[in-house]
Design goal:
alpha/beta; globular
């Protein structure tokens, strides 16, 4: 596919000229940052958009700031499976969907647990979306898509299926984040394999480096380590800082613009399918996808472990 867009493209530019009237979209995390811009860009092209957020008042304020009054809001706390299941039940009554974007997440908090006892990042970023998207799956139209927001931080760490909750291994905030982002990619890979015969495809995307509330837990030591990592990047790569509208572009590119057969089961960034790395990433924030994040057997194993943890089969 000819590269028409790049790291600096915005969601509105990707969707320019596309008519989404009649399309129905569900997005998590619409109270700030990329989620707000994603919802706004899709609604502006005529899509019926349902936006989920833990704080509905904050989400309403965010939508007002971008001049968006067409997004229908629904409550969702991904750190509580009871809330996740209630949200899925509510959405099942709203009719079929054409696109689901698992956008919400958190990064680098101190060690903590969700309402169900899971390590917070794995429980929120992966398990919450795992249950939500699977419960929505029967309501996704043939030809629909699922977009799961991952991150280049998956380069930090593979998943640990023997100790997903850091019960026995030392917790580090960004080690936990890396695990959860690898889980996001593996989830998209296995969801795609299971649903492609229905014409439903799933894709993982890295939105890029965007200054949003996601970094609210980052301390000075971590910021300095990040700065050094950026300075030590490969010679042919430079880190691009994006605004939220640019950060939303790959989500809508993968969910609407790109041919489904080219992105299904893949990892994308900067509006293109990423190169699979043959070894460790030259830089943890650099381009490309780690081979372990696309490993089919690893994806199946994570799916089985996730079902065991949430007590639900899909």
């Amino acid at each position: 596919m000819t590269a028409k867009f790049d790291a600096l493209s915005t969601a509105a530019e990707v969707l320019e000229g596309i008519d989404l009237n009649g399309k129905r979209v569900f997005i998590t995390g619409v109270s700030a940052g990329i989620g707000v811009e994603t919802a706004h860009a899709l609604a502006a092209r005529g899509a019926t958009v349902f936006g989920a957020a833990r704080d509905l008042a904050k989400a309403r304020d965010a939508m007002t700031r971008v001049g968006e009054d067409r997004v229908q809001l629904v409550e969702l706390d991904l750190a509580s499976l009871a809330s996740v299941r209630a949200c899925a039940d509510a959405m099942s009554k709203q009719g079929p969907l054409d696109l689901v974007i698992a956008n919400a997440g958190l990064m680098g908090p101190p060690m903590s647990r969700t309402a169900d006892g899971f390590e917070t990042q794995f429980g929120t970023n992966h398990l919450g979306h795992f249950v939500l998207v699977n419960r929505l799956a029967p309501h996704i139209n043939e030809g629909g898509r699922v977009v799961v927001l991952a991150s280049s931080a998956h380069h930090i760490s593979d998943v640990d299926l023997d100790d997903p909750n850091f019960d026995h291994t030392q917790y580090t905030p960004y080690g936990g984040y890396g695990r959860s982002k690898t889980a996001n990619v593996l989830f998209a890979v296995e969801f795609d394999r299971r649903h492609r015969e229905r014409g439903i495809r799933a894709v993982a995307v890295h939105p890029g480096g965007v200054a949003t509330e996601l970094g609210r837990y980052m301390d000075d030591e971590t910021r300095e380590a990040q700065r050094k990592a950026l300075a030590g990047g490969p010679q042919n790569w430079s880190f691009v800082r994006k605004n939220a509208a640019q950060g939303a572009s790959t989500s809508v590119w993968a969910g609407v613009y790109a041919p489904a057969h080219e992105v299904g089961g893949r990892y994308c960034e900067d509006c293109h399918v990423s190169e699979t790395l043959s070894g460790p990433a030259p830089n943890p924030m650099g381009p490309g996808v780690a081979a372990y994040a696309l490993d089919l057997e690893r994806a199946k194993a994570l799916w089985a472990k996730s079902e065991e943890m949430v007590g639900e089969k899909f």
